[in-house]
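Weekly modeling sync, notes
Attendees: S.R. (lead), two postdocs, one rotation student

Agenda item 3: backlog of single-chain predictions. S.R. asked that every request posted to the team notebook include the full sequence so nobody has to chase files. The rotation student volunteered to paste the first one in as an example of the format we agreed on. Action items at the bottom.

Example entry:
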Amino acid sequence: MKSSCKIFVVMSFFVGIFLSSSFAQKGKTVKPVDSTIVSQENIPAEVAKAFKKRFASATDIVWRLAEGNFVAECVSKNIPTEAVFQNDGIWLSTTEELDPNTLPTTCVKSLNAYFQKYTLNSYRRKTENNKEITFIIGVYEPQNVKKKLETVISLDKAGIIVSIVEPDEPIETAAVSDEKTVSDKKRAKQESKAKKETEKDSHVDDSPIKLSENELPTFLLRWISLRYPDYVYKEILYTEDENFEDEGNLYRIKIQRSGVGQAAHATVWFTRDGDFLKVDDPFHTEEELQKIAENSVELEKARENTRPDRSKVDKAKPAEDVKTYRITDEDEVPAEYIAAFKLKYPRAKEVSWGEYEDEWAAFYTDQAGKNEVSFEKNASDSIQWLETKTPIADLEKVPFSIKSYVEKNYTKQSSIKQAWTVKSSKVKPYVIVELYDKKERITETLEFWQTGKPKNIPVREQPKPEQAEQEKTKPDKKKASKQTDIEEEEETPQIVAKEEVPMEYVEALKLKYPRAKDVSWSKENGDWTAFYTDQAGKNEVSFEQTDSVKWLETKTPIADLERVPFSVKSYVEKNYPKQVSIKQAWNVKSAQVKPYIIIELYNKKEKTTETLEFWQTGKPKL
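Predicted structure, as returned to the notebook:
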């Protein structure tokens, strides 16, 4: 009996150990091994080199293998980043995890049109090697806020929704008794999801999105500029088109000839990827347009071959060294400056202050980035605002004329790194861009007027009067078919006091140009001429002195010389030597003849100027 008891105790002991071990194994949490992680030693040299070149300052790097590509998760410039490379080192994409509060306005509009209510949770921006940008946004719908179930929406660069991924709600299997019930639940969930998507689709605002010229991809701008150099943009839409149902959203661009009364226009269609679809042009066939484009390319090549050394070109001078300021506490800033800032920007938050030698500066951050507002220090009894510097968050918004200038006058490794718009109390608005030279690893800051003209290029000296007289007596060496000079020199207008101008002429100007400011007047041969300045330059409006006031013409400067009709530029190129270029140009609207163009040519070699007149078709106005 005793031996059987001993046997029972021993067996019980071993069974207890076995059961304890089993329960311990069941209760123990074993951390799963992530099989996708790749050690640094196993990263191909080409991949490691490409990553280091693109993300030199990256930290917290973790490598993974996904779909045959190497994925680096890291922190770059304080931004959580994911970069994808092929095994041969070719970069495929970069995805940055950004602050949801910096979401672009176009994306916010699309979300508001699609969802009645939502809570922003995450925002990532994906940039691919074909320069395509995708915004990946995570939101909580009202029914999913407590469960923290995220709906993921992808939008393209124009803010158009590309895809929506609904959250997969976990199924509570504990309350389900058999597989059939689980299957029924899944099916019911799928039906509910499909119904919800259908209901959402009915709320989507599929109205066309209007774009500006600066929002068009560069290759579309180039396609149009080559074939229609003397046209302007009438309407740009990103929308669906019944003529191209299979293409989904596309670009539909209407352009027309520049000038007044040019009703006829052409329409061009491109896919969202920039592929040409169709052109509807009542004046040109596609073959003619292609020929125009080929000629334009040849002209560009000819200009490139004859272009002087870039280092000797009159580039925009780098802006002066950036002024340094001292960060100050708000307690140190005079109360009147704080009050002036709050009055001008009442919604600004998280404001900090800095002190320059002769200025107080306030800094605040919004969706675009860091803004700077400066005030003149101790200028007078009243506070004088100087300027506001606002970042251009999306570099695609930098005016095309500025990007074109950089492309023409700087090497290929130079690109715009940052940009700002500046509103000033002393000068008209302008743009600051910071260029980065990838090869030399240097930065250069330039300033431009919003028209694209450099803000600080030195003005070329005009020829002296006696020199101009000598030029007039020189024999004409140009072709007989060339348009002759306008021999009479323009006389400097004699400005008269405003009180001397008859009131009916002042009122006539206000009626025709109600927004004209800083107006001055002159009188010549009985006619009255008004001068006023806008962003493009100095405008001139003339009236005939009769019993009733009669408008004669308006002369408006063409600030961006790229806008001079191609036919006019082509005429100059064919009939004048290479050292002659268009220095200034004006559009003229007249009460007596159809609109025409005046251009001023400058001969770099002989340092002389010459004025010509053309109809807008490019034919000389003789």
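Discussion: group reviewed the output briefly. Residues 326-449 form a domain with the Nuclear Transport Factor 2; Chain: A, fold (CATH 3.10.450.360).
Action items: rotation student to repeat for the remaining queue; S.R. to check formatting next week.
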